Amino acid sequence: xxxxKGMAAALLLAAVFAPAAAEVAPLPVDLSGGRPYSKExxxxxxxxxxxxxxxEITEDRVDTTRVVIARVRIADPSQLxxxxxxxxxxxxxxxxxxxxxxxxxxxxxxxxxxSYQAARGGYMIRQGELYIDQPIKGRxxxxxxxxxxxxxxxxxxxxxxxxxxxxxxxxxxxxxxxGLIVDxxxxxxxxxxxxxxxxxxxxxxxxxxxxxxMEYLCIVTESSDDSEGGGLTLRQFAEYxxxxxxxxxxxxxxxxxxxxxxxxxxxxxxxxRDHRPxxxxxxxxxxxxx
Length: 290
Fold this sequence. Notes:
The protein is of the alpha+beta class. The protein has helices at residues 4-16, 96-102, 114-117, 158-162, 234-242, and strands at 42-44, 47-49, 53-62, 65-74, 80-84, 105-110, 122-126, 129-134, 141-145, 150-153, 170-174, 179-182, 185-186, 204-208, 215-221, 248-251, 260-262, 265-266, 280-285. It contains five helices and 19 strands. The strands form four sheets. Strands 1-2-3-4-15-14-16-12-13 form a nine-stranded antiparallel sheet, with helices on one face.
């Protein structure tokens, strides 16, 4: 159950959160990074705000498990981006902090470990470029279109892909899954296609609050390595995410991969010095030029 502290923080955040009122130039849809963020916009250890981007960090707890939630608002869809350790056609990894710092990420969450997923296939577009076209039957795919909207497809076919031309095309797609919340409803796709669904572990997901609005949540839970009895099963994680009122939420790689990076520093499981190097991140960047 959510703590009083966590509920109060969520209510306060909802009351004060508003989009930045400014026009910004879109970032290029490629593997370049965001604009360097301003130190003046780093208002506190939990709040960043400039004319194009707002990030606020809150904490909650599910029993003994710490949950860290980053609520993000962007001015342009191009500010929601992904980056590889080195390149999306190379099977290499790097520390998340190094990837995030390289691309000027204000906030970053671990991706879907594409280099591991690629061995199984999948449908993978990153920053507008198609890398893998081998959809896996029965595995949910997160599609992020040119408007920054999330759609979770249970299976990718040529027919389902055609509709995205009217949505600004597909900018990024992810293959870890499953979808936790789809069109406002918690799903029940925690079957054999998803390893470790019944284990208590660190979890991570990315969610869009509502289609048509560029407001997102990045949610990471910690594990038994951080607190006795800590960690959530996949169903417990989905049940928790459902309380946050999002329209679509997608599970990302968990365990030692689950992490949030804020202003270049890891803010989850901070005592874990053995954090797994990763092949990719999802991140939010500023679009304000100095």
